[in-house]
Design goal:
The structure holds two protein chains of two kinds. Chain A is mainly β. Helices cover 1% and strands 52% of the residues of chain A. In chain A, the strands form seven sheets. A four-stranded antiparallel β-sheet of chain A has the order 1-27-26-25, with no helix packed on it. In chain A, strands 5-6-7-8 form a four-stranded antiparallel β-sheet, with no helix packed on it. In chain A, strands 9-10-11-12 form a four-stranded antiparallel β-sheet, with no helix packed on it. Chain A is globular, with a radius of gyration of 19 Å. Chain B has one helix and 37 strands. Chain B has a five-stranded mixed β-sheet with strand order 1-23-22-21-20, with no helix packed on it. In chain B, strands 2-27-26-25-24 form a five-stranded mixed β-sheet, with no helix packed on it. Classes of the chains: A mainly beta, B mainly beta. Chains A and B meet through β1 and β27 of A and β11 and β15 of B.
């Protein structure tokens, strides 16, 4: 009888990670996402509060660099439970070292995005005239010069698809043809990605420029991306299975790997050793970014959070035994 | 070789033995101030150092781990005291600690500690358990935290780490990657080798394949009651077990990895007893320690030889939290009921020939320790004829001839700094005490 959650009778291919701490908690509530805060090294976990009481402890928990749960609750007031299923978080960390940005979408309360920088409200953003009352944040990007929020707004009829720019320079809203589910940045442009389409938006003017497709096929999820220079890596469920690709801007696709997984990718990140990491279902997948060759390892019953910052990786999810797990480690060469 | 040994050792007895309890006197004792009465003890065989985990008291909720040499002397810094529990960024501003840190298990190997503690977060008020690998520079190299239930045991070897909750066993690789996580019957302490993990409670000792974490056939051993706690020890393919039952009996025995019961025995306990340790010595004896739960809260210590014959039933008036063994010496730790503000670390010869005696009368007591000018010796029995002092290498240093009137002082100002052993000779058993000279 097999009583474990993984590797029943098979040879284990250990991921190239040295784990320095791991934590388990009962999985009520579920973990929605996990992040590493590059400013203090904390691993932060966001929980689904939709079915519980408004207990801030359960909404957000921080773990210090040694895995000790300090409940480093960011000091915003409120509870996702107050707005039920209409609210959600999206978050981003600047690739150039600026603070992490969190966006809380409070669409039905008023027409504001609330922007949090390491837990402090830095500004609210009107997304349309009063009465429109519609906004949804789908993704956020911070590049050191500004914060870009991708989502929907009635200020961009009929597609409702918008990118808002905040931060230094003139803020702008840009209407894009399709809802941006992922944002990436080049020195001049914001890439508004709705798989498989990419729209280039001028960073200064907010105007929509060229467009191209990353791949062909029937897309069945929103996908994930990460960027390294002019190279865009993407992961998306295409034609029923997970595809991961490498696309060089102004040149085209370098490789596209089809993986034997049918779930939606949780995240796509790149480490300092030229390796891509994603999680799909209960599989942690790592790929050679040069060739697309991959390995995988199962863990728990679901991986729901993955992030990689300042050389560390954090995984979060659910064991098959009704406990949440958070695992923190360092990718190895 | 293994098969032959098994054939020779198949003496599956279930005997209800009762031999008289004998009070014993330690070769040396070190006392450490603590009001929490909880200790854990580990022996690092690679360095021959003892590590004692204790809490100094409610005013200081940290756990301290203090290192001693096996002769009872202090180990110099950085080994002297390792403070744990400082991880939470909290300032204690009231008499009530915002959190506590209680040692639950301690192992040591190659200057690395494997430690389980229980702590309570100051803001979330969640009870957390942590098993950690800690090097002596206080760097935590790996830790496993559980907020949903306790951890009871940890194991480390060249193949990785194993952490144990009562019904969950996690197997980590050398890179601490979680290789497998098994749900198991209630477990108090595991035994493991490169192939298997043994867990569960008597009569069903469960074997897990370590690589796949799949259940193998259980090793069924004799049982005289309903087990409330079972401790396991694995040595040379033999699993020794000790299991306390709710009916005040204890099952003790040995079974090989094939499931053949080598020996078994039953001990009737004088009262409700917490089973605290099982360890083997160099002669193949199995030592089992426990502490009685109600007055008198004294420790019990049983010795069985390799064939299962009980050869010792001891007490020395203190609780016994933990037990380790090095060569011909058994080390115990616990609450010093004689001085309730102290916890103790004590050493005993495994044959008890040099230390068996009345603890109450004729107890040899030395102070101060360390001494600079003179060492006061109290509790000399009337028959004591001479005292000798040797250094740690056994070299004779000085001798004082009796008779003595219960106490006397030995000048030590002429001795260089170091650790020495005082021996009393006379009509009774020879008694030894370790002391230090520090000018």
């Amino acid at each position: 009888m097999c009583v474990i959650f993984s590797f029943c009778g098979s040879v284990v291919a250990q991921p190239p990670i040295v784990v320095d701490w791991m934590s388990e908690l009962p999985n009520d509530p579920m973990i929605l996402a996990a992040f590493i805060n590059p400013n203090n090294g904390r691993s932060e976990v966001i929980y689904d509060e939709s079915s519980g009481t408004c207990d801030t402890d359960e909404l957000w928990r921080g773990y210090d660099a040694n895995g000790h749960p300090g409940n480093y609750l960011d000091p915003w007031v409120g509870c996702l439970n107050a707005f039920a299923s209409l609210d959600h978080y999206v978050a981003a960390t600047s690739r150039t070292g600026s603070p992490r940005m969190d966006v809380l979408n409070v669409s039905t309360l008023n027409n504001h995005f609330y922007i949090y920088c390491n837990g402090l409200i830095i500004e609210g953003l009107d997304i349309g005239p009063p009465g429109y009352g519609y906004a949804s944040a789908l993704c956020v990007l911070a590049d050191g010069a500004g914060v870009y929020i991708g989502g929907g707004s009635t200020s961009c009829l009929p597609a409702y698809s918008t990118i808002f720019k905040l931060g230094s320079g003139a803020p702008w809203p840009a209407c894009v043809p399709f809802s941006p589910y992922s944002l990436e940045a080049t020195p001049d442009s914001i890439l508004s990605i709705n798989f498989p389409s990419v729209h280039m938006v001028d960073k200064v003017a907010g105007t929509v420029g060229s467009t191209f497709d990353l791949f062909t096929g029937t897309v069945s999820n929103t996908g994930k991306t990460c960027m390294n220079g002019d190279t865009l890596y993407w992961a998306c469920k295409v034609d029923g299975s997970l595809h991961v690709g490498k696309y060089l801007l102004h040149q085209g696709s370098i490789w596209e790997q089809v993986l034997p997984f049918t779930d939606i990718p949780v995240e796509l990140v790149r480490d300092d050793h030229g390796r891509l990491w994603t999680a799909v279902g209960n599989n942690l997948v790592w790929l050679d970014s040069a060739t697309g060759s991959y390995s995988s390892e199962t863990i728990g019953s679901a991986i729901t959070g993955l992030d990689l910052q300042v050389g560390a990786i954090v995984l979060a999810g659910t064991m098959s035994t009704n406990v949440n797990f958070i695992m923190h480690g360092t990718p190895q060469p | 070789m293994r098969a032959g040994l098994t054939i020779c050792m198949i003496v599956a007895l279930a005997t209800n033995r009762s031999i008289a309890q004998v009070p014993i006197d330690p070769v040396w004792t070190r006392l450490v101030p603590s009001s929490s009465h909880v200790t854990r003890l580990a022996l690092d065989h690679s360095t021959d150092r003892l590590h004692l985990a204790f809490q100094p008291g409610p005013a200081d909720p940290h756990t301290y781990i203090r290192a001693f040499n096996t002769d009872g002397s202090d180990v110099p810094p950085p080994y002297t005291v390792l403070t744990l529990g400082t991880f939470l960024p909290v300032t204690i501003t009231t008499g009530y600690p915002f959190y506590r840190d209680e040692p639950l298990r301690l192992l040591a190997q190659s200057d690395t500690l494997y430690f389980i503690d229980h702590y309570v977060g100051q803001l979330d008020d969640v009870s957390w358990y942590r098993s950690a690998r800690i090097t002596l520079d206080s760097a935590t190299t790996f830790s496993m935290h559980t907020g949903g239930g306790p951890q009871v045991d940890v194991h480390h070897d060249q193949f990785g780490d194993i952490t144990v909750s009562p019904t969950v066993i996690r197997n980590f690789s050398n890179h601490h990657w979680l290789m497998g996580r098994a749900i198991v019957p209630t477990t108090d302490r595991i035994a493991a080798d490169e192939m298997r993990i043994y867990c569960g409670r008597v009569p069903n000792i469960i074997a897990l394949d370590r690589s796949s974490m799949t259940l193998l056939s259980p090793l069924v051993v004799p049982s005289s009651g309903s087990s409330t706690r079972t401790l396991l020890m694995l040595t040379n393919d033999v699993i020794n077990y000790a299991s306390v039952n709710s009916n005040l009996t204890m099952d003790i025995g040995a079974v090989d990895t094939a499931g053949t019961v080598i020996w078994s025995s039953i001990v009737t306990l004088p009262q409700t007893t917490t089973l605290t340790g099982i360890v083997g010595d160099a002669l193949g004896n199995v030592w089992i320690s426990g502490s009685q739960s109600v007055s008198p809260q004294t420790g019990i210590l049983y010795r069985f030889n390799a064939m299962g014959a009980q050869t010792g039933n001891y007490t020395f008036g203190r609780t016994i939290d933990d037990i380790v063994c090095s060569g011909d010496t058994v080390f115990l730790s616990g609450w010093d009921a004689v001085d309730p503000t102290m916890v103790y670390l004590a050493a005993f010869a495994t044959d008890m020939t040099t230390a068996i005696g009345s603890y109450g009368q004729g107890q040899l007591r030395i102070y101060p320790n360390p001494a600079s000018t003179e060492l006061r010796v109290d509790g000399l029995s009337p028959g004591t004829s001479r005292l000798t002092v040797t250094d740690v290498t056994g070299r004779f240093v000085k001798e004082v001839q009796g008779p003595f009137n219960g106490s006397m002082s030995i000048p030590v100002s002429d001795l260089p700094n170091g650790t020495y052993v005082l021996r009393s000779f006379g009509a009774g058993p020879t008694t030894m005490r370790s002391f230090s000279v520090l000018h």
